[in-house]
Design goal:
Elements (H helix, E strand, L loop, with lengths): L1 H16 L21 E9 L4 E8 L20 E6 L6 E5 L10 E10 L2 E9 L14 E7 L6 E2 L10 E9 L2 E8 L5 E7 L6 E2 L11 E8 L2 E7 L4 E6 L6 E2 L19 E8 L2 E9 L16 E11 L2 E4 L14
Antiparallel strand pairs: 1-2, 2-3, 3-4, 5-6, 6-7, 7-8, 9-10, 10-11, 11-12, 13-14, 14-15, 15-16, 17-18, 18-19, 19-20
């Protein structure tokens, strides 16, 4: 407790000592859903028309209190939440996304946003129902592609054939003149695999095999400091992989956000990342369960709640590091 108090005091002194930080640093938590308090799995995109950043996220029903502690219905029947920000640090809730029901389903997870040529693309994990146990045989999952011109109205697109009925968590990046989509295949040991496309519609397997021989989910691929990086959730911190070509990956020995943070609402491991590279900096957005917060001592369901946090990634000697205790100031800037 003394160490935690000292860290908080030093963080406050640091913020006051740095010009422009006071009043501009990201709050902790960065964001929490004001309705069901279960924001998770964020993806952030810049809205060119309104000159603001838009966060899409899995909107878990974290305040649901089922008498059966093993019941996981609270992470089903989930819409996609939305929030907006001018700088990526202060966020305002904007309700839920208008996702067409005819090509999706009652349970929506892990949106992945990508913008190109005046079109916004979303790859969305869809589960066909509300299930009460992990591993239910009927709980299949697919990834659906949607498009929009304004981030408000979405049009159904294709459902990529990924060779499995249990695929979730898309991440998309453009590599040269082609696109790659990475995803988790639960039928193949929850390994992360990839497909490739020339038009964001028709995808073919790369034949590369898993990017790493371990289970993980929520991959995020991005370009930073002259290399390709993938950060994914291994449920015991975030794994980091580096690549020169986005095909062959090297696993970084040290995971990120494995150890709980010291500041209130950030006291558990970090999960399911998004990374926004802006102004030459890389901002890591992640969610944190509230199981270790004081409120959880009186409320056994409080740990279902999740909040979004942000920290800045640093590249040092070919590896990525992050200090979740350091204040994040300056924020995102509009892309050129």
């Amino acid at each position: 407790m003394k160490l935690r108090t000292l860290i908080l005091a030093l963080s406050s002194v640091w913020a006051l000592a740095l010009p422009g930080v006071c009043g501009a640093a990201a709050p902790k938590p960065l964001y929490r859903d004001p309705i069901t308090d279960g924001a998770a799995d964020v993806s952030i995109v810049f809205d060119k028309a309104h000159r603001q950043w838009v966060m899409f996220y899995t909107n878990r029903r974290a305040t649901l209190k089922d008498p059966d502690p093993k019941d996981v219905a609270w992470v089903h029947a989930t819409p996609i939440g939305m929030a907006t920000s001018k700088d990526g640090l202060a966020w305002t809730y904007k309700g839920v996304a208008a996702i067409p029901a005819q090509c999706t389903g009652p349970t929506l997870w892990a949106p992945e946003l990508y913008a190109e040529g005046g079109v916004y693309h979303m790859w969305l994990t869809v589960v066909p129902g509300v299930f009460h146990r992990w591993g239910d045989k009927a709980a299949t999952a697919r990834i659906v592609h949607l498009t929009s011109k304004d981030l408000a109205t979405w049009t159904c697109g294709d459902t990529p054939d990924l060779g499995s009925d249990r695929v979730i968590d898309a991440s998309v990046a453009k590599i040269g003149d082609r696109y790659r989509l990475w995803y988790k295949d639960e039928r193949k040991g929850s390994r992360i695999l990839a497909v490739e496309s020339t038009n964001l519609v028709h995808w073919t397997p790369t034949g590369d095999g898993p990017v790493v021989d371990m289970a993980a989910e929520g991959p995020k691929v991005f370009r930073f400091k002259g290399a390709w990086w993938m950060i994914a959730d291994a449920w015991k911190g975030l794994i980091v992989l580096r690549s020169d070509d986005a095909r062959t990956w090297s696993l970084q020995p040290r995971r990120l956000l494995e150890q709980p943070g010291l500041q209130p609402t950030d006291t558990a491991k970090g999960q399911h990342p998004d990374v926004v590279v802006s102004g030459g900096r890389a901002f890591l957005y992640y969610f944190v369960h509230q199981s270790n917060e004081p409120e959880a001592k009186a409320d056994p369901y409080y740990g279902q709640r999740t909040v979004v946090q942000v920290a800045e990634l640093r590249e040092e000697g070919g590896a990525l590091t992050v200090d979740r205790e350091a204040p994040v100031e300056g924020g995102l800037v509009p892309p050129r």
